[in-house]
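A favour, since you know our structure tokens better than I do. Would you make up a two-line entry for one protein for me to read? Write everything out right here, beneath this request.
=====
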Amino acid sequence: MTGQQQAPTVGQLPTPASSESRVPTLLTRIVWALFVVSLGVAAIFGWRGDGWELTGLLAVDGLTVVMWVTVTFFSGIVHSYSRRYMAGNRTIDRFFGRVFAFTLIVMVLVAADHIALFGAAWLAMGLVMAGLIGHAADWPQAQAAGRLARRHFLTSSGLLAVSLATLWWQTGSTTVSGLADSVGTVSSAVVLFAAGLLLLAAMIQSALVPFHAWLLSSMTAPTPASALMHAGFVNAGGVLLVRFGPVVTIDPGFMILVVIVGAASALLGKLLKTVQTDIKSKLGCSTVGQMGFMIMQVGLGFFAAAITHLVLHGFYKAYQFLSSGSQVAHETPRKQTTSGSAGLVGLAVVAITALAGGILFATLTGKGTAVDSGLLLTLLVVLTVLHAARDIVTESSLSATIRYGAVPLVALPAIAVYAAVYRAIEALLADLPAAGQAAELTVAHGIVAVAFLAIYLAVETGVYKHSQRLYVALLNATQPPSQTQLTTTEEYNEY
């Protein structure tokens, strides 16, 4: 970048001069205004207990309200962060235009009732995100990553279009709400065909295995765009399946397939993360796994749990990406301070805390107290607490008193907060078609649960590390296409 003149990108946020664009400031203020409006809409919805619609075109319901508040908040954070991050970049207006357009498109998507409008918004959302991935026009790797993402998103849109066209042809309904009332009259084979296409479209958009390559290649995107992608865009798969719940839940066998697909991606995402060394790629693999958990919850029939998961994961992943730069320490590498064993006392604390977390979640939400798929949802909560508690207990830089005492003091209140958010979203989605219908437990659910638990424990205990062949397979699976990879740092010059 020798000899090139550009505005400072570090320090106090520059005040635009008369010759500088005010687009970033304007769009940032508009997005935060949209957030305030979304909060108002949510308050009105909660007070009325009912939404409203523009017949045959748009419908504001509980899912719309939740997603509007979530998307505008994340977008506001990204807009504000980007004003400093992109300062001095000659493409700053184009970047802000795309991020703002993405926000508006998602708001239309979650409110769309006409299937043509929904399909068009889905396509536009993918194209705008592909543009953000390939934002650096003079960087060949970024352009290659953008093209790869675009192909995936066009495929996803094509699958969605065929599914919606099939449902329209068989039911005569042109609205999502109309499909909910008429899909029961259609041949089960036709509905399963449409549901299968919806699942594939969701898998691609949410970067589930084996469609995760586009996500791992997307690290060429500016960090704020990555935050928006991982906090919002990949959640579209869950929103799609929840929105078309009456189609997806038409057959219990298909719901089990959804659980299997989600479980496979959750486990593989966790495994893929273990062979990554750079921060953003680790976060990408983590997203693959977390989206798997979200799809699992849809397959279990807990739509509110899936939406709660995507909201809370969005908060976490947005923070992780926007703070990823602080993880790079400019110092001599030091020996890690985390021990490899928790000890007998530590294991007891972790196990008791995990069980207590599951019991607390079941008590506060009522899930897991009956013999249905709620037991599996509670099991996921137990595993989550187990993982978090183990990380704290094995942190040898802390005293034993702090480590053992902090586990229940941190984990249990966190579960209580999660349960409260879950109950609030469950109430908002109460009128959503097919929401709240927990799947009945079957032998297939039991087999999936046992297999999932066995593989999860194998990963947690490190047993899988004894296989060099598995390591090589995982490493190969995490390698994005060569044309999207940076081979020398000198090639990176977005100016």
Q: What stands out?
A: The first helix runs from residue 23 to 48. The mean pLDDT is 82. Residues 343-441 form one domain.
